[in-house]
Structure formats: structure tokens, C-alpha cells
# Entry
Amino acid sequence: MAERSQWHSLASAVAVTAAAAVAAWSRWPPRACRPAALSFLLVRYGGFDIFFIVIMLSRTSIFGVRVALVMGGRRAMSAASSSSTSTSGTTTPDPTFKTPTIAEARAQARRFRELPNDVLFSLAVSGDYNARKERFIREIMRVDNIDWVSAKIKIETTINAKNDQFAWLVTLPYRVGLTAGVVGAVSAVPLVFHRPTAAWFNENFVHEALPDDGLESLDTVWKVGNWTWGWMEPYLGTASFVLLGLQFARIHMQRLHLQPYTERVLSWRARRLAKTFPQYESRIVMDFSKADPWH
# Structure
């Protein structure tokens, strides 16, 4: 049964490729039939062949044939690769490559505390928080001559509390931005398209003249939007341009190796923690501080 399924996949791939070649050189299928053909092929062959379907229905000459052949060839290769699968459905390993033994599987590291120092160093350089924390724990063990559990308790209580000092102040701009973003995103749609909300906002803040036929004439959301856009466009457009300008400035600050607010705050935080605990290696302390969450 499995072998028959493999041959069926290969035959389907060949048929698909041949149909693509014919479609690219001829006027088949007719334009009126192409939506139905597209729907059938989407259901039959799935999302991976969407590029092939577009090529087959668009008749893009030699380029279309080449792309279709590539897509059909990939399907053929995928079907051929299944020949390494046994009839029971399990994959037979290639004998030319070594497979891990049970002893090796049992010896693998499952926690960061089981990793050697050189691996931890590589992960810490890449910015991994758990690796930087584990390095700091081992640094505390080395300097204070205590066990791993005691060092972990110290870093999660005393040191972490010191690192999170003034967190409410330095994270205030993020909280303001989060609140403003959520409020702006949620309120934008009803302020533009919801007639009662727009009428209330106009009465209390805008004081724009009502339509000549009254609010009752705004019987669709599009009419409401056309009426409110006069005062909502400056608000939405200005907010979008401000965000675009700030993002543009941030990019060029980074290219000039200038620190934006986030990087500046993290550097200040790291230097402060390193000065508070000068007995430990400053680079390890600063790396931990920069990766440590604000809570």
C-alpha cells in the first residue's frame, strides 16, 4: 500500500508538470474556466503549489515552463524521498551517518546549570538571559565560595532587587506609550465611523457644524466617515508622521552609534549594578543586568 502511494505521488507530479507545460504554451484552460480550475487545484494540491497554479493559469511562456518544472520536480523529489520510509511508517536511518546512543542521550544537558563554561560563554555573548544568569551564579560561587543553590538565592533576591530599583520610573515612558497606543487604536474606529461617538466627540471637543440634513442623514458608516474625516485626518495623519519621524531618527542614531533611550537606560542600569557589587567581574554583572527583565 505504501509503495502504491509513492507511485501515485510520482505520477501526480509528472501529470502536474506536464499540465503546466501545456498551459504555458497554449490557451488552456479558457479564461472563463480558470477560477474553477484554480479552486480545484488549490483543494487538490494545497498551498505549496500556489506558484505553480499561478504559472499554469497565466501562460507565462518559457519562464512559466521552467518555474512549473521546478515546482513539479520538487513534488517528484518529495515523493521519491518517501522511498526511504518503510511500510510500517517509520523512517529507516541512513547507515552512513552515526546515530546517538541511549547513553549519549542520557548524558545530554537538560538545564543551563549542566552546561560547560565555554558553552555558557558563547550563549551569553549571543544575549541569552538564562546563560548570562548562570554565568553570574557561577561568578558568585567563585567569589563568595558558596554552593549553587545559595548563589541562586542571592541573585534572585538581593541582586535582582537592586537591579530593579527605579524600575517604575525608567519604565514610565513605556507605560505611557502602551496606554496611548491602545487608547488610540481602540478609539480611532468609533471616532471615525460610529455616529453616536462621533457626534459626542464633535459636541464636546470639535464644535464642527452638523450636516445640512442633520445627523439622521448619516445613515451609513461611509457617510459618517466622510463627515468626521475633516477633523480626524489631522489627528491620525500627524500621529502617524510623528511615529514615522521618531523611528527614522532612531535608525540613524543607531548608525551613528548613539544610544536611544532603551539602550541608554540599560547601560546606566548595568553600570550601577556593577558599582554596587564590585567584587564580581563587571562584564558578567553588566551582561546579566542588561538581560534581566524589569520585574
